[in-house]
Amino acid sequence: MVTLYSLSSSSSTFLFPPLSLKHLHNYVPKRSTTSLYFNDNNRPLSATSLQSPESDPSVSPEVRTFWKWLRDEGVVSAKTPARPAVVPEGLGLVATRDIARNHVVLEVPRRLWINPDAVAASEIGKVCSGLKPWIAVALFLLREKAMEDSKWRLYFDVLPESTNSTVFWSEEELSELQGTQLLSTTLGVKEYVENEFRKVEEEVILPNKRLFPSPITMDDFFWAFGILRSRAFSRLRNQNLVLIPGVDLINHSSKVTTEDHAHEVKGPAGLFSWDYLFSLRSPLSVKAGEQVFIQYDINKSNAEFALDYGFIDSLADRDAYTLTLGISESDPFFDDKLDIAETNGWGETAYFDIFLDRPLPPGMLTYLRLVALGGTDAFLLESIFRNSAWGHLELPVSRANEELICRVVRDACKSALSAYSTTIEEDEKFKGEELDPRLEIAVGIRQGEKKVLQHIDGIFKERELELDLLEYYQERRLKELGLCGEQGEIIFWEPK
C-alpha cells in the first residue's frame, strides 16, 4: 500500500506514490485493443482489405472462421461496411466502403454478449452470485474456453493469449520501468489479482469441481483478467462489464476526440427475432480501405493505457503523474483538518492527476494549504472559521504557508526524478529507433513522467518567484476592515 505523509511545518515531507489502486476493487474496464503497440497511421490498405475475410489469405484461418460464425449468426452480411484485416496494430476493422460519421459499423445482439447476465443464466450462476462482477465473468470465460461445445468457441479462438499490458511483463522488462509510478501500480495490481484468485479458488473453484472440471491456474486467471481489462465495454445502459464479439476488434486512435461510439438499441437479431443490440457507430467519416477507429478513453493517462491495453498514445497530454496528499494522524491538528476536508468533499487522503502542460487540478492548492497549515496560521482551524476555512484556503494564507508548499513540492519532484535509472536526454536517444513494443512503452512512460515532474517543478518554481507579489489572508482581512490601502500599506487612524 501507499505510504502517505502529512505536509506541515512540523513534518514538511510527503511522497508522490504510485498510481492509485483506490478504484481497483470496484474496477470496471473500459475498452480494448487487439494491438501489440500503437500506430496512428490511417492510410488506405491494399485491395485485399476490401475482400471478404473468408477469402483474404492475410487473415488467419481462426479469424476467417470467426467472421463466418458471425455471418451464420446474422451479425454480419455482404452489407456490413467493415471487416477484420491485418493492420499496423495487428488486427483491426477496415472499411469495405465509405462510412459516414455516426454510421452503424456493427450491431451484435445481446444473446452473444458475455456479461454478468450471461454468468447468472449459466450453470455456474448460483455459485458466482456473490462475487465481484469481473471475477464472475472471468470464471465464466475460463469455463467456456475449456468447453469444446461453447457457444463462443470460435470467439475464444481469436482472443490473444496475452497483451502487452504491463501485468504480463517479465521481471527484466519491468526493470525498464524503474522509478515510475506505473511499476509500483503494476506490482500492486498483480498482487491484487493473485489474492483474488487464491480466495476464489478456495471458496468457489475447488468446492465445485463438477462445475469447473478443467483445472484453472493462476496464469489462466490472469489471462481472463487481461482480456476483461483490455476488451470490455462499460458505457451501455445498465451494462457495467460486457464483451462484444467482433466489435472488440476495433482499435484506438488519438484522432478521435469523442467517446460516442457505443449504443444500445432494440432491433432485429435474426430472421424472426428482436433483441437489444450493441450498436457500434463510426465517430469519424472513413474512406473505403481505411481503418475504422474509436477513442478508448479521453481521460486516461498513458500509464493507464499501458496497464489496460498494452500501448501508449502518441499525444503528449496523456503523460501524467499522480500526486497523493494525506493528513497524517500524527498531525496535532489532524481532527480539525480532517473535519474541514470532509465538510468540503475531500478526505484524509486526496489524489491529484497532473497532466503535462495542463493547469493544476482544481482543489489541489487548497488541499495543500490545508495540509501545510500550522504555526500562527492555525487560527483558521478554530471552530469559528469552520464553515469558511475552505474558502480562505482557496487563496494564499501566508507567505510561510505558501513558501512551505513550494519548497516541499519542488523537493519531492527532485527526489522522484532521481529515482529513475535514465535521464530525459538518455531516453530521447531512443527516438526514431525500432524498439521492442514493451521497451517502447517503458521509454515513453518514464520519459512522460519525468516531463510532468519537471512541469510541476516549474509551476512551483514560478510561484516561489511570486511570493512577494501575492496577497495573503492578513492583507485581505485588513482591506475588508478598511485598514489597508491598495498598495498594501497599513492605514493608521489618528484620534481627533
Automatic annotation (TrEMBL):
<feature type="binding site">
    <location>
        <begin position="251"/>
        <end position="252"/>
    </location>
    <ligand>
        <name>S-adenosyl-L-methionine</name>
    </ligand>
</feature>
<dbReference type="InterPro" id="IPR001214">
    <property type="entry name" value="SET_dom"/>
</dbReference>
<feature type="domain" description="SET">
    <location>
        <begin position="73"/>
        <end position="297"/>
    </location>
</feature>
<feature type="binding site">
    <location>
        <position position="263"/>
    </location>
    <ligand>
        <name>substrate</name>
    </ligand>
</feature>
<feature type="binding site">
    <location>
        <position position="231"/>
    </location>
    <ligand>
        <name>substrate</name>
    </ligand>
</feature>
<keyword id="KW-0489">Methyltransferase</keyword>
<keyword id="KW-0808">Transferase</keyword>
<protein>
    <recommendedName>
        <fullName>[fructose-bisphosphate aldolase]-lysine N-methyltransferase</fullName>
        <ecNumber>2.1.1.259</ecNumber>
    </recommendedName>
</protein>
<feature type="binding site">
    <location>
        <position position="248"/>
    </location>
    <ligand>
        <name>substrate</name>
    </ligand>
</feature>
<feature type="binding site">
    <location>
        <position position="235"/>
    </location>
    <ligand>
        <name>substrate</name>
    </ligand>
</feature>
<keyword id="KW-0949">S-adenosyl-L-methionine</keyword>
<dbReference type="GO" id="GO:0009507">
    <property type="term" value="C:chloroplast"/>
</dbReference>
<dbReference type="InterPro" id="IPR050600">
    <property type="entry name" value="SETD3_SETD6_MTase"/>
</dbReference>
<comment type="similarity">
    <text>Belongs to the class V-like SAM-binding methyltransferase superfamily. Plant protein-lysine LSMT methyltransferase family.</text>
</comment>
<feature type="binding site">
    <location>
        <position position="296"/>
    </location>
    <ligand>
        <name>substrate</name>
    </ligand>
</feature>
<dbReference type="InterPro" id="IPR011192">
    <property type="entry name" value="Rubisco_LSMT_MeTrfase_plant"/>
</dbReference>
<dbReference type="GO" id="GO:0016279">
    <property type="term" value="F:protein-lysine N-methyltransferase activity"/>
</dbReference>
<dbReference type="InterPro" id="IPR044431">
    <property type="entry name" value="SET_RBCMT"/>
</dbReference>
<dbReference type="GO" id="GO:0030785">
    <property type="term" value="F:[ribulose-bisphosphate carboxylase]-lysine N-methyltransferase activity"/>
</dbReference>
<keyword id="KW-0809">Transit peptide</keyword>
<keyword id="KW-0150">Chloroplast</keyword>
<feature type="binding site">
    <location>
        <begin position="89"/>
        <end position="91"/>
    </location>
    <ligand>
        <name>S-adenosyl-L-methionine</name>
    </ligand>
</feature>
<feature type="binding site">
    <location>
        <position position="309"/>
    </location>
    <ligand>
        <name>substrate</name>
    </ligand>
</feature>
<dbReference type="InterPro" id="IPR015353">
    <property type="entry name" value="Rubisco_LSMT_subst-bd"/>
</dbReference>
<dbReference type="Pfam" id="PF09273">
    <property type="entry name" value="Rubis-subs-bind"/>
</dbReference>
<dbReference type="InterPro" id="IPR046341">
    <property type="entry name" value="SET_dom_sf"/>
</dbReference>
<dbReference type="GO" id="GO:0032259">
    <property type="term" value="P:methylation"/>
</dbReference>
<keyword id="KW-0934">Plastid</keyword>
<dbReference type="Pfam" id="PF00856">
    <property type="entry name" value="SET"/>
</dbReference>
<feature type="binding site">
    <location>
        <position position="231"/>
    </location>
    <ligand>
        <name>S-adenosyl-L-methionine</name>
    </ligand>
</feature>
<dbReference type="InterPro" id="IPR036464">
    <property type="entry name" value="Rubisco_LSMT_subst-bd_sf"/>
</dbReference>
